[in-house]
Amino acid sequence: MRKIISLLGKPCAGKGTRLRQFLEGKEEQYMVVSCGEALREEVENETILGRQAKHYMDAGKLIPDYIIINLVLNQIRKAPEDVSLILDGFPRTLEQAEAALECEMGITHVVNLVVSDAEAISRSESRIICKKCGESYTQKMFKMPKKEGICDKCGGKLVKRSDDKPEIIEERLKIFNIYTAPAIDRMKASGVEYLEIESTF
Ligand code: AMP
Predict the structure, then answer these.
(1) Which of 72, 83, 66 is nearest to 33 (CA)?
(2) How far is the CA of 57 from the centre of ligand 1 (A)?
């Protein structure tokens, strides 16, 4: 049966890293809808959406719900029926959770990666990501590239995310605790299969 998995967790919980590990060898069975990566691509391409999104992302704030809900719905509609989906970082607010349940997006599982605020802050200090494929490297998790500044996987350039600054990460954690934690509780109460994983590496 087709699965639609919502992957949630604080910033630096390791969503992207876990996702890449999980997908190895299963790439054809799953399609990933990553709101963060889709938005970073829009920013990079300087589209109208990208220009609007940058303003929120650089401040560590969430993008308005109607934009995100449409973005996710469009991706779900585009996906072939027999492919399972992983919604990386959706839903992140109660409104998004209600929309996910009302629009019958068909979410079957919620995976919540749990990490403390202190650990998230510490990981964000050394995190660098690949501009091309999104792979992330963090000294704290003993994962650094073989060649400085170059992605082991695709040879892309490694950069610091503009929202990984200490003051921004604190804002993002605050937003997670205020908006996303209740969204996770709502999804949990809806009866979908719920899995909580302690994010240790
Ligand atoms: P991420 O790559 O998942 O850490 O997301 C990076 C940024 O993209 C977030 O800090 C938000 O500004 C934006 N974003 C990603 N997913 C969502 C969402 N579901 N709702 C609102 N904003 C989002």
Answers:
(1) 72
(2) 7
Active site residue 2: no
Distance (Å) of CA 28 to CA 25, 85, 154, 161? 8, 11, 19, 29
Residue range 96-114, pLDDT digits in tens: 999 998 876 789 999 999 9
Query: Locate tokens 């072939």: which residue?
Result: 80
Nearby residues of 160 by Cβ (< 8 Å), 6 or more positions away: 127, 128, 129
Rounded Cα gap, residues 34 and 9, in angstroms: 13
- Judge whether 92 counts as a catalytic residue: yes
Q: How many CB atoms lie within 10 A of CB 172?
A: 22
Mind listing the pLDDT tens digit for each residue in 115-150? 999 999 988 888 899 988 888 888 766 678 999 999
C-beta separation of 158 from 130 below 8 A: yes
Phi-psi region of 150 (alpha: psi -120 to 50; beta: other; left: phi over 0): beta
CB of 56 sitting under 6 A from ligand 1? yes
Instruction: Check if 40 is active-site.
Output: no
Contact 131, 157 (CB under 8 A): yes
- Which run of H or of E encompasses 49? helix 48-58
